[in-house]
Structure prediction request, 275 residues.
Amino acid sequence: MRSKSRLIRCLGFVALIVSGTAPQAGADELISEGLPPGSYSASSVYDYHVPDLAFDGGGLVFESTWVATDPAGWIEVDLGEMRDLVRTRLTLHMSPEGRATYRVWFASAPMQGDFASATVIETFAGSHVDGEILESVLPEPQSARYVAVETSDSVAWAAWYEVQVFAADTPILRASGTCPGGGPIEVSWSDAAPNGQCALIFALDQGSFLIPAQYPCQGTLLGLGSNQIQLVGTFRSDADGSRTVRGFAGNGACGAFLQVLDLTNCDTSNVTPIE
Prediction:
């Protein structure tokens, strides 16, 4: 079995010991409401039902609903900057109820109905009812500035009570290695506490590891398993809550997993594989 010190050398980092406390962890952040004028657009508008109304948190109220003038249409939000998005939540207005196809698109540039350079995140096809909630939870955060919802093949005019977009309110971790075989590795994270310390943690498997007493952030549940779980090192994030660390990963690290623990607030990042 590979020793802790050998494995850390294999990853190319130096482990440090730190102290910290364990405040409440964060949750997803709703980022699509209350944006500046001009942030919302749509293919068409029926009467006073402008696209802004789908982003106002008004709930199941027709007066607070975006409505198009035909069954095929789109609604789009400009988030103002690239964000790491984790889920969308759509509340459907549909009259009459029945068949329709809805697609959620992410992009780095305005789409305005042209989805050639966009990425489809989710497709909801079939029979639908008024007030139905269509939620898409991404397996990994996706970076985008623009989010659009496209309606097609619908028996009713395109319309939404609510369109909600959520970003991670916890650190986002990415790793880029040269597996199999090992080689240079780059690990980066964003959305951590500005200028705060983060612990980079390694394990051979995913799971549910509870940080024990007398350790920083005791009681925090990690998404890593206990098999060779260990601290790779602690690193200070920059003023934007980001950091990039480069090193070397041996072949034995390929297929293992990493997670970041923000020692300022004990938030945990996603678990990412070394590959």
The CA atoms of residues 38 and 239 lie 29 Å apart. The mean pLDDT is 88. The helical segments are 4-11.
